[in-house]
Design brief:
Length: 361
């Protein structure tokens, strides 16, 4: 599907052989007791499968990570190489990366990445058919932050169960080769976020850019599910009207003018429970584990309709969490207990009336 440029074929081939034979692709994952084996010559899917397969995608990112870290506030792009395999062929793509995010750009040693894939010429193809990919990174070099990443990944998977109007994600086992530190190597985890344009096309929609919006122009059923899901996971770090951690799409069908909000960035949720996550000032809660409804005011029947949709997905939520092999049992049990608490409460008579509706916006 993809081909290396003639000038780089031999050099990149030698790099890959040296990695395999000398290093054996055995790099220690910080915070873990075992050693991870990376085989770049395994078969990996291309564009059509990138967000459809469940197994982790494996790749190498060769970049001056030291400079990327030191200049994370400056919005600069840094050149690099993305290396992976497809149909037994070694693929090397020129890329540019820059730091993204707000809070995580400040606090993370390796902040989230905006990765731009470059074409060498008009005949060249983008990796996976995509020109831009957002990566959520491990943030810091310890086991806790790896677990935060896994837990946030799971939140995306849970919302995929709730609605197809959601960002798909793909877990990535990534080898960083830091050219700024004498090609020091680190194997860790990340996940890729489905580009908004790809999501919109998948749903027969177009992307909409609007800084502020009213609930009157949005699809009420989608908004209600989003808001109650955010309550379930303990997340107040979003705003539909202010378009904070929310993207907007609209159907290509002009008879359907409503906007569909799509949430992202769940690291401040109670499910993730990151050590740096603090509730916003003035919310009246002391921990992100405390739930607070931050959605629109609705008639009780509308709240109950959204609640029953979530209740109908409870078994699937549980199965998804329990089958996730990259978190230890105590981590998964913590998530399950937190979500079970939501379902116990939401099924109580008058819970919505006295604990959700009074906080609506």
């Amino acid at each position: 599907m993809f081909a290396l440029s003639p000038n780089n074929t031999f050099r990149n081939y030698i790099i890959a052989i040296v990695f395999c034979l000398v290093h054996g692709f055995m790099f220690e994952l910080s915070g873990q007791d075992d050693t991870i084996h990376i085989d770049l010559f395994s078969k990996f899917p291309g564009y059509s499968d990138l967000f459809e397969k469940e197994e982790p995608f494996v790749c190498t990112l060769k970049v001056n990570l030291k400079k990327y870290q030191h200049e994370k506030y400056e919005g600069k792009y840094h050149p690099g190489k993305l290396i992976y395999t497809h149909n037994d062929s070694l693929i090397s793509k020129s890329v540019r990366i820059k730091a993204r995010g707000v809070i995580r750009r400040k606090i993370c040693a390796v902040p989230p990445i905006r990765l731009n894939i470059q074409k060498v010429n008009k005949q060249d193809k983008y990796a996976f058919g995509l020109s831009k990919i957002k990566l959520v990174t491990h943030c810091h070099y310890n086991a806790n932050n790896i677990n935060y990443l896994f837990r946030e990944f799971l939140v995306y998977k849970l919302y995929n169960i709730v609605t197809d109007k959601s960002f798909r994600v793909r877990l990535i086992k990534i080898v960083y080769i830091d050219t700024g530190r004498k090609n020091k190597q680190l194997t860790t985890w990340a996940f890729a976020l489905e580009p908004q344009e790809l999501l919109a096309e998948r749903l027969g929609c177009i992307s909409i850019k609007m800084d502020n919006m009213g609930y009157s122009v949005s699809d009420s059923a989608t908004v209600d599910l989003l808001a109650l899901f955010q309550y379930m996971i303990g997340n107040t770090d979003y705003s539909i009207m202010g378009r904070h951690n929310v993207k907007l799409i609209k159907s290509k069908d002009h008879t359907k003018p409503e906007l569909y909000p799509i949430p992202y960035d769940f690291d401040y949720s109670g499910v993730v429970n990151a050590h740096y996550a603090l509730p916003g000032e003035g919310l009246g809660i002391e921990s992100v584990r405390e739930r607070l409804y931050a959605g629109p005011c609705r008639d009780l029947i509308d709240y109950h309709t959204a609640a029953q949709h979530l209740v109908s997905k409870q078994a699937e939520f549980k199965a998804t969490i329990e089958s996730f092999e990259y978190l230890e049992d105590f981590q998964k049990n913590d998530i399950l207990n937190y979500i079970d608490n939501f379902f116990r409460n939401i099924n109580r008579p008058n819970y919505i009336k006295y604990h959700i509706d009074p906080d609506c916006l």
